[in-house]
Amino acid sequence: MVTTREHARAVAARVTDPELPMLTLADLGVLRDVTVTADGVVVTITPTYSGCPALETMRDDLVSELRAAGYRDVTVRTALHPPWSSDWISEDGRRKLAEAGIAPPGPAPAHGQGPIPLTLHTPRSQVPSDVCCPWCGSAETAELSRFGATACRALRTCSTCAEPFEHVKEI
Amino acid sequence: MSFDNAYEAITEQNDARWAFGTGFDSPLSGVDSELPEGVDRADLATYSLMLADDALVVSHRLQQWCTHAPELEEEVALANIALDLLGQARMLYTRAGQAEGGDRAEDDYAYFRTESEFGNVRLAELDQPDFAVLVATLLVFTTWRLALLQRMTGSRDPVLAAIAAKGIKEVTYHRDYAAQWVVRLGDGTDYSRQRMRDALEAVWPYVDELFATHPVERRMAEAGVGADPASLRDECAAVFGTVLESATLEVPQVSPRAGVAGRAGRHGVHTESMGYLIAELQAVARAHPEATW
């Protein structure tokens, strides 16, 4: 059996996200590192959000996928720093999100040293927006709610084609 | 692994657990747990517990809004905010356990401590009889916590620094959510404005306590691990001023609610609401200790 780092990484990289199953953990940018040791393989992942319940499932899925590929001793470590950013979603991942009707995130806001600025505008007041509708491409979209079905997604609506859609938040 | 249907998921051979309840893996599993040199272990444990308790108790209050929020979108938003805070609490409890050096883990702190062992600020535990009180509480709490976490990103404890760096991204969203609602209600109809003003008056007596420094907080700030809450007052006041001005409201002129002989939430002295909250939070875990499902 081949037990190179590349092979182990390839196996870990094909595990999909439980909540965005069109993305692999590598696409999502949560797969930080894969190393092969004498005893087995060590995978390092990072949570997208502090309370992300999918992390437990990712851990189980990684162990199960790597064991099925012949790695008996699999350790999954969590890295907290630096914190995950939506900027880490790969180009491939962004394309897959858009194909599934989920608008990919724009650039994440940079947090400098000073106090973090407030955003007081109401969500519907910025049309046209930077977020284009994944169905028709229109920029005439507005945020319905900044919090969607999972911590990483917001709800938006398109006023051109009248379809609602999800948007992966910038973080 | 992936499953074609839910039945397949619960009958999987190699996994005894079919749903997540208690018995989670440690949220800091695999994170380097070494303690920074020269930092008092007991203080670090107590400090981590204070910050964890704030997050857990506010999270619990938000969870109580499930099925009670005015609109589905708000319910989802509140559940999301609750989940982020719960995640922060879990990591902080785990850090407290590492600092303490015993065998206590997150569930032990959340479910098996008494009311007086909880060190959350009293603002966190207040009853939220209506949506305006909820957003008033959330505005104050998130503004304060965001300022606190931002200072802690430079903590000498690398675990607290990492939890804070992650937390500020989340709490920035939480604070915007609360602030936008305060503006919408305050600058809304005469009726919504009156309700928002009443809510601020109900919450504001507990604001002063947020900036009172407990001896553990002072020592942790001096050690470069934490932040002195007194140093957050001006930044928070500026945010409150901006939001309330946009909401055409004023900062309430009310007296701070005194503690008992100078002791308040951080010392384990709570309001009457806390006992009910703890009872609900802990009932299942105390009835079935060690249960996992």
Short descriptors:
heterodimer, A: alpha/beta, GMP Synthetase, Chain A, domain 3, four-stranded mixed beta sheet, 7 strands, B: 293 residues, mainly alpha, Ferritin, 11 helices, 58% helix, globular, Phenylacetate-CoA oxygenase subunit PaaC (chain B)
Structure description:
Chain B: InterPro entries: Aromatic_CoA_ox/epox, Ferritin-like, Ferritin-like_SF, PaaA_PaaC, PaaC. Chain B: One of its GO terms (cellular component) is cytosol. Chain B: This is Phenylacetate-CoA oxygenase subunit PaaC. Chain B: It comes from Haloechinothrix aidingensis. The complex is a heterodimer of chains A (171) and B (293). Chain A folds into two domains: 5-78, Fe-S cluster assembly (FSCA) (GMP Synthetase, Chain A, domain 3, 2-Layer Sandwich), CATH 3.30.300; 101-106 and 118-168, no CATH class. Helix content of chain A is 22%, strand content 20%. Chain A has four helices and seven strands; from the N terminus they run H-H-E-E-H-E-H-E-E-E-E. Chain A has helices spanning 5-13, 25-28, 54-68, 91-99; strands at 31-36, 41-45, 74-78, 102-103, 141-145, 153-158, 164-168. Chain A has a four-stranded mixed β-sheet. In chain A, strands 1-2-3 form a three-stranded mixed β-sheet. In chain A, a hairpin with a 4-residue loop joins strand 1 and strand 2. The longest helix of chain A is centred in the middle third of the chain and has 15 residues, at 54-68. The N and C termini of chain A lie far apart (40 Å). The mean pLDDT of chain A is 88. Chain B is an all-alpha fold and 293 residues long. Chain B has one domain (37-252, 263-287): Ferritin, CATH 1.20.1260.10. Chain B starts with 5 loop residues before the first helix and ends in a 6-residue tail after the last helix. The model of chain B is unreliable at 9-22 (pLDDT under 50).
